[in-house]
Amino acid sequence: MTAFASRHIGTDAGAQRQMLAALGFNSVDALVQAAVPQSIHAAARPTTGIPPAATEAEALAELRELADQNRLARPMIGLGYYDTFTPSVITRNVLENPSWYTAYTPYQPEISQGRLEALITFQTMVTDLTGLATANASMLDEATAVAEGMLLARRASKAASNVFVVDADAFPQTKAVLRVRARAVGIHLVELALADGAELPTELFGVFVQYPGASGRVWDPTGVLDAAHVAGGLAVVAADLLALTLLRSPGSLGADVAVGTTQRFGVPLGFGGPHAGYMAVRQGLERQLPGRLVGVSQDADGQNAYRLALQTREQHIRREKATSNICTAQVLLAVMAAMYAVYHGPEGLSEIATDVARKTEALAQRLRDYGQNVHHDAFFDTLRVTVPGTARTVVERARSRGYQLFWADEATVGVSVDETTTAADLAAVAWAFGAPEADEHGDRDLAYADATPIAGVAASLHREDEYLTHPVFHTHRSETAMMRYLKQLADRDYALDRGMIPLGSCTMKLNAATEMAAISWPEFARVHPFAPEADVRGYLAMIEQLESWLAELTGYDSVCLQPNAGSQGELTGLLAIRGYHEANGEAQRTVCLIPSSAHGTNAASAVLAGMRVVVVACDEAGNVDLGDLRAKIAEHADALAALMITYPSTHGVYEQDVAEIAAAVHDAGGQVYVDGANLNALLGFARFGDFGGDVSHLNLHKTFAIPHGGGGPGIGPVAAKAHLAPYLPAHPLAQRADHVGGVRFTGGPVAAAPYGSAGILPISWAYMRMMGSAGLREATAAAVLAANYLAVRLHDHFPVLYTGVGGLVAHECILDLRPLREQTGISVDDVAKRLIDYGFHAPTMSFPVAGTLMVEPTESEDLDELERFIEAMIAIKAEAFAVSAGQWPADDNPLVNAPHTAQQIVAEQWTHPYSREVAVYPTRALVRTKYWPPVRRIDQAYGDRHLVCACPPIEAFA
Fold first, then answer.
1. CATH of the domain at 718
2. Considering all CA atoms of the chain, what is the largest pairwise distance in Å, rounded to the nearest integer?
3. Which residue has the higher pLDDT, 957 or 122?
4. C-beta separation of 109 from 307 below 8 A
5. pLDDT tens digits, residue range 174-219?
6. Sequential DSSP letters for 385-416
7. How many CB atoms lie within 10 A of CB 746?
8. What's the rounded mean pLDDT across residues 385-411?
9. Secondary structure, 3-state, 300-314
10. Is the same domain home to 735 and 798?
11. Which residues carry this modification: N6-(pyridoxal phosphate)lysine (predicted)?
């Protein structure tokens, strides 16, 4: 192994020999060769585009060279992206803290109370500022949040119309994303200059308003929102949260839905992301919310506890009937934004907003004093200035001083002010527009302290109501208090820094510190996504390398890095397939075949791409039923658009017939979409593009080491064959049109930024650079070895539900706990919660088969940790049989009462028929390293019956 690979891979040569002996193989390579079908093994290639593995120091040095190619300018482009000061206490204790960034989605709420509290704080922040009843736990970005708002309006409106009205003064990237999403599902967009009094159509299902507008204009949209309601539609408003500290809330104006981004609340620009979008709705629409919603419930002692509510993971339940394909959030970034509000409080946020507004007013006055035509009198932080025929000159003059302005057209320049803008910055910008330099006795700074904020905004739009009144926004004022609060929250959670998270399909592998290092560098962090090409050459070079490496590894020709989640990657690939069929004159091809075992987002994504889902059965071994597949292909041959198949399968098995399956679809004129969620079991041994794949999404937050961040960020880039590549998404504000191989994408955007969540791409770049092609192959082999070792060690205790040739699995295995329940009455939930007492995060529970645990150990865990998990599972089984033998009552035993808290154990009265030691120290090894869950088992149903999705009053915890 290379130096870095030996640190990334948890099992050394000696451990692997021991594991192989249990499996009957002489080498790791022989094991994987036996597991992966011979028909798809990657052919030996004499050359590769991936350079040999670098050391950690070498990789950081190369990243520094790339970073130095980015010009660290002062971004004043705006359009929903603003420079911001991330409080150092948040940078150090959240963004750079593995207790936060290595956590998984809070599907086991008892060990996720810290991030759930942070998310409910986020939701409270959003509802307070927007003036609406309920907010979700974040969206992917603003543009896609607006698209989700449009789809929510169509679901909730009783109007028969298919018309959705779009504000002409919306951000250009938002309008572009809306066009893509609307076209796919047959929505008719009508763009109108709403601020100028354009009348709404008589029939519509919704209207969308940008507040303030992209031009900076602040106007009263109440009449438009009222007219939309009269027509039977819903009103969606995209609002700037910082502006809402000074301006009336969307809810008070009559909005049904508010959307936007929380980026300027302390989240770095990162060349476009990741950032936490938001969505809030009025009362009565909470069950229509897409994404995740954190609610308050109670635990077994009746104490308040947080958990995911209502529609969580609805895609896995409702599949093609799901209302959204979003199964994730931007948790890490939502936590940062929420803690920014906690740190500053309402007074601090108002002070920041007032300062921004004063700077903008002072700049506007300076420009007017020197004869410039500022478009609007009412604004918050953005100005549009008319400079006939000289817009490019103004932008270039500003750039010569280190400032990036927005070139709107040949006669118009935009400039946006943020919390980092100084008086000297304002003076330099004014100079770019033609204002004179200060004389030698004057100060170059432009005074703004006396300017009146939002001076031109009508008094009726000034905010008067309170916000952020909960004590959490008033308590943690000193850095000491803030540091301790963040530590307390982190201590309530279980993340990879505590132990293994063996979640099947989720690939919770090491997120190495060296991989993470560069994301905080200002040359990567403080870069605007619409900065000019000359200022972002380092980013573009890194992106070109990543595209090339990912294409090489997957056997495809082109890669698009824009989708900012796996689900969005699915949608992107399917839209490319639709574009291809339409270009070939076969628009009738809209049927998407999906195996019954598929990830639930597959079906939801197909529907959002305008396709009709037809389910294909699986056989008893968990493979696609070839007979049913052929029958479905024959039935829908003329309408067949695509087959979506996960490989290895969702059941954790390498299907032997995948090449034959792909050929059958191709023969019928369809395309093959290979879901790349399980690529960690294949990388270096087989390539999607070689065995029939036409397009795939890849999860950089799984296979390529970007951390899950408590449930987000994610990146789901799409790789495609040459015939589909032209239909991948372009972007109206992209710095370059061409991609690797000179291919030009022509599809519309699926994310707000040209390269999606580019700010975390250095993580995957560093991972691949330090692993090299050999290290990536070794990682795959180690992951497959670990999964098979767990399967063989546990199969005598828990049946392994699906296996392939030779009884082997891929990178994960499904343990069938249904026989245990039949024999003992102990459920999969009981086992999952009891694992917490043993110091583990439970595997994936009841997916894809109810009553099972899907275990994925990854390559990063060492043999001691694997053995610890094996011993825990065997011990839990013994406890279950002790219950069935009558040693403990069925309703009072260590499993049904799990997990056990410290408070429960130190209570004066202990009435259970088992000892306190059995409850919390089932193995002696836990005595020194015990993780104590903060709450007992949570009542999920209670929380849905008594829905509360904002911070409960402090008295509730008394």
1. 3.40.640.10
2. 93
3. 122
4. yes
5. 999 999 999 999 999 999 999 999 999 999 999 999 999 999 999 9
6. EE-TT-HHHHHHHHHHTTEE-EEEETTEEEEE
7. 14
8. 97
9. CCCCEEEEECCCCCH
10. no
11. 702
Mean pLDDT score of the chain? 95
pLDDT at residue 8 is higher than 50: yes
Judge whether 292 lies within some domain.
no
The pLDDT-based confidence of 941 (bands split at 50, 70, 90) is confident
Distance (Å, rounded) from C-alpha 456 to C-alpha 449? 17
Domain containing residue 784: CATH number: 3.90.1150.10
* Residues 750 and 502 sit within 8 Å (Cβ to Cβ): no
Task: Specify the amino acid at residue 544.
Answer: E
Q: Centre a 10 Å sphere on the Cβ of residue 728 and count the other Cβ atoms it contains.
A: 28
Neighbours of 436 (CB within 10 A): 8
Does residue 868 share a domain with residue 812? yes
CA geometry: angle 850, 855, 861, nearest 5 deg: 165
Q: Residue 878 falls within a domain, yes or no?
A: yes
- Bridge partners, 814 (sequence order): 854
Together in a domain, 526 and 606: yes
pLDDT at 326: 84
Q: Is-contact 724 695, C-beta < 8 A?
A: yes
Which tokens go with 531? Answer: 């900065």
Residue 773 vs residue 925, higher pLDDT: 773
Two structure tokens written together for 370: 């020197």
Mean pLDDT of 649-659: 92
- Rounded to whole angstroms, how far apart are CA atoms 662 and 641? 13
Give the helix, strand, coil percentages of the chain, each rounded to 5: 45, 15, 45
User: What tokens appear for 855 in the block?
Assistant: 């275990």
Q: Which two tokens stand for residue 172?
A: 């250009």
Does some domain include residue 235?
no
Where does 231-269 have alpha helices with state H? 250-253
Strands 852-855 and 163-167: unpaired
Are 761 and 814 within one domain? no
Alpha helical stretches, state H, 626-711: 626-635, 658-667
Is it the case that residue 46 has pLDDT exceeding 60? no
Cα–Cα distance, 667 to 665 (Å, whole number): 5
Question: Are 646 and 569 in the same domain?
Answer: yes
Tell me the sheet residues that pair with 718: 560, 697
Q: What is the pTM of this model?
A: 0.97
Asked if 753 and 863 sit in the same domain, the reply is no
Q: Tokens 């695509």, residue?
A: 642
Q: Using one digit for the tens of pLDDT, what is the confidence trace for 103-122?
A: 999 999 999 999 999 999 99
Total structural domains within the chain:
2
* 207 belongs to a structural domain: no
DSSP classification of residue 696: E
Share of the chain above pLDDT 90, in %: 89
Same-domain check for residues 635 and 666: yes
Q: Per-residue pLDDT tens for 596-636?
A: 888 778 999 999 999 999 999 998 888 899 999 999 999 99
Burial (CB count within 10 angstroms: exposed 0-12, middle 13-18, buried 19+), residue 628: middle
**Does residue 444 register a pLDDT over 60?**
no
Q: Which structural domain, as residue segments, surrounds residue 672?
A: 48-68+520-771
Task: Look at residues 771, 795, 828 and tell me which one is the last residue of a structural domain.
Answer: 771
CA 450-451-454 angle, to 5 degrees, is: 145
CA distances from 467 to 126, 210, 241, 350, 473 (A): 10, 21, 12, 10, 10
Domain boundary, last residue among 771, 805, 837: 771
User: What stretch of H or E contains 260?
Assistant: strand 257-261
Do residues 685 and 777 make contact, with C-beta atoms less than 8 angstroms apart?
yes
Instruction: Specify whether the CB–CB gap between 177 and 146 falls below 8 A.
Output: yes
* Residue the block writes with tokens 């429960």: 904
Tokens matching residue 499: 């132990």
SS3 label, residue 695:
strand
Pair (785, 767) in one structural domain: no
Q: What are residue 294's DSSP bridge partners?
A: 308
Q: Which two tokens stand for residue 88?
A: 């150092």
